[in-house]
Amino acid sequence: MTPGTVMEIGRQAIETTLMLAAPMLLTALVVGLIVSIFQAATQLNEATLQFVPKLVGIFLVLILFGPWMLQYMMDYIQRLFGSIPQLIG
Q1: Which family is this protein grouped under (predicted)?
Q2: In whole angstroms, what is the distance from residue 14 CA to residue 37 CA?
Q3: pLDDT tens, 19-75?
Q4: Residue 41 carries which DSSP code?
């Protein structure tokens, strides 16, 4: 196994991690921004007001994108395990 293949496996792992985390992170960002604008407009500064909408948003994203995320992860793992003979030999 050459350093290039190790770097390629690491790059693919980071890419997969970012692809799987992106929907949840973007949802938390958008919901947080909307709630922050609402808090600024109403001068209602309650820390727990941010938590529940983000939790609901991430839960909905997991319901909507969960099958895609699972399939994406399974494809990556199958490719990684399938390439083991070429990496060893």
Answers
A1: Belongs to the FliQ/MopD/SpaQ family.
A2: 33
A3: 999 999 999 999 999 999 998 898 888 878 889 999 999 999 999 999 999 999 999
A4: H
Position 25 scores a pLDDT of 96
- Token pair, residue 15, equals 């890419």
72 contacts 20 by C-beta, under 8 angstroms: yes
- Structural domain spans, the chain: 3-88
Per-residue tokens: 39: 């808090």
Residues 6+ apart with CB under 8 A from 22: none
Residue type, 72: Y
Is residue 3 classed exposed, middle or buried when 0-12, 13-18 and 19+ CB atoms within 10 A define those classes? exposed
- Report the pLDDT value the prediction gives residue 57, as an integer from 0 to 100: 95
Nearest-angstrom CA–CA distance, 12 and 18:
10
